[in-house]
Automatic annotation (TrEMBL):
The keyword Iron does not apply. Keywords: Signal. Residues 10-93 form the Methyltransferase type domain. Gene3D superfamilies: Vaccinia Virus protein VP39. It comes from the Eukaryota. InterPro entries: Methyltransf_11, SAM-dependent_MTases_sf. This is Methyltransferase type 11 domain-containing protein. One of its GO terms (molecular function) is S-adenosylmethionine-dependent methyltransferase activity. Residues 1-21 form the signal peptide. The keyword Signal applies.
Amino acid sequence: MILHGMSALVVLAEIYNNVIATDTSPKQLEFATKLPNIRYQQTSPTMSSAELEQKVGAESSVDLVTIAQAMHWFDLPVFYKQVKWVLKKPHGIIAAWCYTTPEVNDSMDQVLERFYKNSYWDSPRQMVDDKYKTIDFPFEAVDGEDSSGPFEFENERWMGLEDYFTYLRSWSAYQKAKEKGVELLSEHVVEEFKRAWGEDENGGQKLVKFPIYLRIGKVGA
Ligand SMILES: C[S@@+](CC[C@H](N)C(=O)[O-])C[C@H]1O[C@@H](n2cnc3c(N)ncnc32)[C@H](O)[C@@H]1O
């Protein structure tokens, strides 16, 4: 299988004999957990057929292509053509998910909503705001389902406020603002978040929910 994105790598490496983890960013690949059955591969933003075959695999050789919070950045017509080429027919699966903004409590979520509404997001982010409902997804429903989604899930994670800030700083909009000399997490905004975070029960940790939206389909004949 191929995995775009690093977060679910460990689980996938337990299920599949061979995992190919691709990203355009060498840094992202450096951060990933290293396991013997995962091959890491830096790829071009839009791969040529030759690069696809060399770095990923031959025609009809892959069981699952999965992409975490990244597909909205891709050149989709080219990507889908390559997914259809590389997946085993007819049962090869593509599963792509996105996650929207984290949910903590009403006051935190209100501060986040104001923070989120900034002008530094690139237009593909809209597909995440739309929970992948509007993203083009030309694949057949998998057995037992009558559509390719989006199907909603939820991921929960215990986080301290510093972990939460680290996550906000990883956002492309935060990075883009920073490059333009704008600190979105200004002292004032940090104070607002601190007030909203509230009491320090559970050692300062809170259960943070990440809504996840999955599009899943099979390649067909
Ligand atoms: C928001 S991060 C998601 C990281 C990881 N998948 C996760 O869920 O934590 C988006 C990732 O997409 C990668 N990316 C952007 N355009 C890409 C492309 N055309 N091909 C492959 N990866 C790409 C970026 O380098 C970045 O690592």
